[in-house]
Amino acid sequence: MAHSAFTYIDGVLHAEQVSAVSLAEEFGTPLYVYSRAALTDAYEAYARACAGRRASVHVAVKANGNLAVLNVFARLGAGFDIVSGGELARVLAAGGKAENVVFSGVGKSADEMRQALEAGVKCFNVESIAELDRLDAVAGALGKKAPVSLRVNPDVDPKTHPYISTGLKANKFGVAFDDARDAYRRAAAMPHLEVVGIDCHIGSQITEIAPYLDAVDRLLALVEQIEADGTRIHHVDVGGGLGITYDDETPPDTGLFVRTLLDHIDARGHGHRSVFFEPGRSVTGNAGILLTRVEFLKPGEEKNFAIVDAAMNDLARPAMYQAFHAIDAVVPRNEAPSVYDVVGPVCESGDWLGRERALAVRPGDLLAIRSAGAYGFVMSSNYNTRPRAAEVIVDGDKAYVARPRETVESLFATETLLPD
Ligand SMILES: *Cc1c(COP(=O)(O)O)cnc(C)c1O
């Protein structure tokens, strides 16, 4: 399924039925291009496997928060997983429902808690005792009861990159497994909290099911203890983290992944509980590409560089995690390729998008950086006073501007000079 919305038609890369060449000409580069069909297919793979079961899908907004993208999911009936008050506002503006929102994150402010309580979110995924105390106080002041789940750190190794593994002991996220039962006792005793569930999120870009099964086993053992203490657990939130194919990874098929987890929870005698999934990367990652144009080719003694008009401020993952993104010519040339490092114009040696790529390119050619739909635009910045790229969403043979390119003037419009 990977990349299937982005295919070559008569030698030109297309997004669905729209040529990437015409997109670049109309909207300029660098340009994020999303496919509505690819977003829909990736979400529906979760939704289909959940249909008829006590299971729901909460799309992680932090992977791609564009309103048009969120709206595609909202129209399909998705819930959302948020990590800030800003993301809650986005979900509501995109047509999502607060009652289907779970609020994750390790540092929620009192303001964010108030905002989420007033909107009526489904659940707060709480990560510490201090956060329980704060939420209890905020809910009390509003005369409300806050629905809570504790994010438990199951201490399983998801076998992914250390920067994106979150469920190990030496990690800022979650309540330690050994402290969780006691934390639940304390939560249950707080007057303005209502314990409703348990959650975990063990990492990202996970390409095996086994670590999830280990995490679920640990969670369910804990659920039995919590219920023995007299607190009912209605839902088990298994988090997100399912990986995608960037290069040669072979993550499990989404439907198989969902069914395997649900069947496992059933078989363990917990089939009466609701199960939540919080996918981010696996519903948006391969539904987007970043189009960029080659500015210069710079041959070097040790390396050749293809300097392009996208940079680390547009797509941070290579600089941040040494992440691999496939890079393809939009109109492949029938010429012998050379090996290039594909780099941006930002003044940092870490500003690279791909290393040692065999490409037959000339200045002015367009390249497509694949798998850019997740943790792409959302992580972009204005470093080097670079306006952020436009985002376009393609639907069949039409393209819509989901976010226009920023202007330079807008970048410092609210800055002021010192008084005389
Ligand atoms: C980031 C995050 C997700 C989504 O992770 P993906 O790897 O993009 O699927 C889900 N839940 C929580 C709590 C997260 O922090």
TrEMBL record:
Residues in Orn/DAP/Arg decarboxylase 2 C-terminal domain copies: 32-373
Reaction catalysed by this enzyme: meso-2,6-diaminopimelate + H(+) = L-lysine + CO2
Cofactor or coenzyme needed: pyridoxal 5'-phosphate
Key word Lyase present: yes
PROSITE patterns: ODR_DC_2_2
Domain Orn/DAP/Arg decarboxylase 2 N-terminal: 41-284
Any one GO MF annotation of this record: pyridoxal phosphate binding
Pfam families assigned to the protein according to its UniProt record, in alphabetical order: Orn_Arg_deC_N, Orn_DAP_Arg_deC
SUPFAM superfamilies, per database record: Alanine racemase C-terminal domain-like, PLP-binding barrel
CDD domains linked: PLPDE_III_DapDC
Binding site for substrate: R281, R317, Y321, E348, Y375
Pathway: Amino-acid biosynthesis; L-lysine biosynthesis via DAP pathway; L-lysine from DL-2,6-diaminopimelate: step 1/1
Positions of the catalytic residues: C347
Top EC class of this enzyme: lyase
Annotated positions binding pyridoxal 5'-phosphate: G241, E278, P279, G280, R281, Y375
Function noted in UniProt: Specifically catalyzes the decarboxylation of meso-diaminopimelate (meso-DAP) to L-lysine.
Subunit organization: Homodimer.
Protein name: Diaminopimelate decarboxylase
